[in-house]
Amino acid sequence: MRRLLQCDSSGGRMTDKRAYLGRSLNQRAYDAADKAAAAFEALMRQNAALGRLASGHTLIGFKTEALRIFNEEFASAASFALNLLDSVDEETSQAIAYFANRLVELIYGKLVICGPGTGIAEATVARELNNIKIALQERRERVLDDFAHGMAGDKRIKTDPVVSIADTQSTSPDEAPASDRVVRIDHNSVGYRETEEALDTLEHGLKSTNDFPGEPEEKDQFVAEVSAARRLLQAARVRIAALAELLKPLLVQFVAKVKDNVIATLAAAAGAAILAWLGHIFG
Hints:
mainly alpha; 283 residues; disordered N terminus; two-stranded antiparallel sheet; two-stranded antiparallel ribbon
């Protein structure tokens, strides 16, 4: 009888945890939607100040921000779920899948609200927003598959050590840390394509902006460093330490220092793309 009572108590605690998870995921989805709306509005204000609100820069920024927020919020929710329940079973997977679906719909909903404010032709906006929704749906399928295997991108969810793409190049856990390793680059991978797109957008943004919050020499330095990083990634292999050394001043230190600026937004998006692909390379 004692064992039966203990089992029932454990089952009750699990039920409570699942109910708590459901409430938390629901609130997280709405919080993510608010975060997306704020990001889209900030982007529009920045582009309006630069005289390019009704341009492709705004639509590119919408996509970058939508994917960034989806990635961040899903990874946070997935880690929360596994830390709370300690395992991935069918019921947990269903809850996370529902959350991911809500993320896509709510973020897309905020885009639909913001779209008309760009001043871009309605048909163009509708087409591009639909493309962003498709990109979000594709990302949803990818992260759900990762979650089912306890992963978030190249990182193991929960408190396990980071597993980066570099780890797959070594057979010994005692070798140099990931930042010192040479890794192979799959130029057909989604991670590479998204990183290259984000860095390309950042480089062009740096070259064209008239609102850079720093010295012209610093701006020129950042342009050269982003360009050099892109060239590094075009090779079949790259040393992670070299890539991090080039990009850290802009993607980490500059973003932490400067707020509400279009370059900071583009740099943050590029940083998020790299972290989702290669893991935490900046130390």
